[in-house]
Design goal:
3 helices; transmembrane; CCB3/YggT; membrane; YGGT family protein
């Protein structure tokens, strides 16, 4: 049971890192630090976006429209952290 919980925690931490990377690349695109002609960053950004879009879509429906700022990745990070806290409390000592 402990090994299974550790695997889920590791997957949650990986998802957190991917969301943060996706957010940072999006900011770099927004402030023109990296141009959209850089195919590597465009491919990484699009791959992560496709990965998390099914999870973010319901969150976006619940959140109020804030205009240009998308708070759904932050809500997803908070939900993942909450799951990690619950899983860590289930781990045997």
């Amino acid at each position: 049971m402990d090994a299974l919980i550790q695997i889920f925690i590791m997957l949650a931490n990986t998802a957190n890192m991917l969301v943060i990377i996706w957010f940072i690349i999006g900011l770099l695109f927004s402030f023109n630090v990296i141009g959209r002609d850089n195919q590597f960053f465009v491919a990484v950004h699009d791959a992560i976006a496709r990965l998390f879009e099914p999870v973010l879509r319901p969150i976006r429906r619940v959140l109020p429209d804030t205009g240009a700022i998308d708070f759904s990745p932050m809500v997803l990070l908070l939900l993942i952290y909450a799951v990690v806290i619950v899983l860590e409390s289930l781990r045997p000592i």
